[in-house]
Amino acid sequence: QVQLVESGGGLVQAGGSLRLSCAASGLTFSSYSMGWFRQAPGKEREFVAAIIRRSGRTHYADSVKGRFTISTDNAKITVYLQMISLKPEDTAIYYCAARLSDYVSDDSAYWGQGTQVTVSS
Prior knowledge:
- The chain is mostly beta strands.
- Helix content is 0%, strand content 50%.
- It contains no helices and eleven strands.
């Protein structure tokens, strides 16, 4: 059974930093592309970042480029999202996703339960 468990969310002031973690189990980590999505109140879920299986290439939404970094620790079967220079508009529930393909999309097969990130101004 595949499980994705996010952690690391919280309340931070604008300009601050947070690191989100997504611990995966029940899957062959190297076979999956991993991504982060977020959903703000009253808005649709949107793509944030992805790291592609095998190649390790990363992709970012324009709104987070230069501020967020996605990475993996294969030994810990964990994907991270390091967030710096946080803005109030980054406030959302952040979800981890896994897809057995060379890309990550909103119809990814597996999702975590989400972790709340709140950035105060």
